[in-house]
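Task 17 of the worksheet. Students: predict the tertiary structure of the chain below and write it out as structure tokens. Keep your answer in the requested format; marks are given for formatting as well as content.
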Amino acid sequence: MHKHIVVTGSIAFDYLMSFPGKFTDHFLHEHMQRVSLSFLVDSMDKRRGGCAPNIAYTLALLGEKPRLMGSAGQDFGDYREWLESAGVDSERYTGWAFGMGPGRIALSRHGIPDIRLLSESDVRFLGQFAQ
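Model answer:
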């Protein structure tokens, strides 16, 4: 019987940014309870990241035929082609997933139109949910 190696885990792109200076130089002690920062960067590189595809890719380089199982975004097409060219099977397991985590429950319960509002740290928006 032939056994298959199925590699599961995160599938993502990593964005590596070059930032001049130190992040700590931009934190103000008196505002640590509410931190919202934006930075200009000198450069940004997009790299293939995530644990599962990197493990599967290395196994393929060693002669195995791993199968990749995980969640990926709409921008997975180029990543998929790169993995499959190395011998990683990313087509065998496909499907749709639906989650009902705390963010989705809050959307439904409070009529919030966009889940991104929950992570923007806008005290005017978030203040309406304070007890």
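Marker's comment: The longest helix spans residues 51-61. The chain is about 25% helix and 15% strand.
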